[in-house]
Design brief:
- By secondary structure, the protein is of the alpha+beta class.
- It has one domain: 2,3-Dihydroxybiphenyl 1,2-Dioxygenase, domain 1 (Roll), CATH 3.10.180.
- The chain has helices at 22-33, 82-90, 150-161, 211-220; strands at 2-3, 12-19, 36-37, 48-52, 55-62, 72-78, 95-103, 107-113, 119-125, 133-134, 140-147, 164-170, 175-181, 184-191, 201-207, 224-232, 235-241, 247-252.
- The strands form three sheets. An eight-stranded mixed sheet has the order 3-4-5-2-6-9-8-7, covered by helices on one side. An eight-stranded mixed sheet has the order 12-13-14-11-15-18-17-16, covered by helices on one side. Strands 1-10 form a two-stranded antiparallel sheet.
Length: 256
């Protein structure tokens, strides 16, 4: 388990689910991960939050705008200056979809697409720092971007979000770079240009002590297996769609 009091600049700091069926999504994720679902807040357009052991772990909102009719998980990256980050994104090949907007005393948000069109939320924390525990069962475990414009996108995140990166693999078959905070890895970027079946855009992995058992429970609660659990050099991974079609992934210890 890793804990923090505030997210490092540029790090994934929050995630939320855009859903066409809030009741079904609330039921699925509370059953699967043991989360507690708070009631929707009318003053925030029906936005609600999930808690894990009494601490915020993720959010949920009715599908609308760019997400209308498409259940999906979104990723937020931390910044000390949301407006400045959006300006930098626009000047470095990105597109601002939603300008900086203060959310009460919680923080300031905005939405951009990177040079390959992947949606990314920007979050300038105030009272709401995002999730503070990760890489523990039932919490966010990893964040990963698959892109067809690998070099352009890496340059974008380095410049706009101040990423420090390390190349993990650089062969024609597999190119992968991680975002670092010191020695800690916080997110990954994979060259998907030679992988037509790869999920393009940002993916969210939830940590699971037992990936197989968690995937089996997910199916019991209405999810579909997209890619069965398998051991990899990076842990045991599985890909699922929740009952409304929102894709998520699981990561945990290998079986071998």
């Amino acid at each position: 388990m890793t804990t923090r009091t505030a997210p490092p600049a540029g790090a994934p700091c929050w995630l939320d689910l855009s859903t066409t069926d809030e009741a079904a999504s609330r039921r699925f994720y509370t059953d699967l991960f043991g989360w507690h679902a708070n009631e929707p807040a009318a003053e925030f357009g029906g936005y609600s939050t999930f808690e894990r052991n009494g601490a915020p772990v993720a959010g949920m909102m009715p599908a609308q705008g760019d997400y209308a009719g498409n259940d999906s998980w979104g990723v937020y990256l931390a910044t000390a200056d949301a407006a400045g980050t959006l300006d930098a994104a626009a000047g470095n090949g990105g597109t601002v979809t939603s300008p900086a907007m203060q959310v009460a005393d919680l923080g300031t948000m905005g939405l951009v697409t990177d040079p390959d069109g992947a949606l990314i939320w920007v979050w300038q924390p105030a009272r709401h720092q995002g999730f503070l525990e990760y890489a523990v069962d039932g919490a966010p475990g990893w964040f990963e971007l698959h892109t067809d414009r690998y070099e352009d996108v890496l340059g974008f995140y380095r410049t706009v979000f101040g990423w420090s990166t390390a190349t993990e693999a650089d062969t024609p078959q597999f190119r992968y770079t991680t975002m670092r905070n010191g020695e800690e890895q916080l997110a990954g970027v994979m060259d998907g240009s030679g992988m037509p079946d790869a999920d393009k855009g940002w993916s969210i992995y939830f940590a699971a002590d037992d990936v197989d058992a968690t995937a089996a429970r997910a199916v019991e609660f209405g999810a579909k297996i997209v890619r069965p659990a398998e051991d990899t050099p990076y842990g045991r991974l599985a890909v699922l769609d929740d009952p409304n079609g929102a894709r998520f992934k699981l990561v945990g210890p290998n079986n071998r």
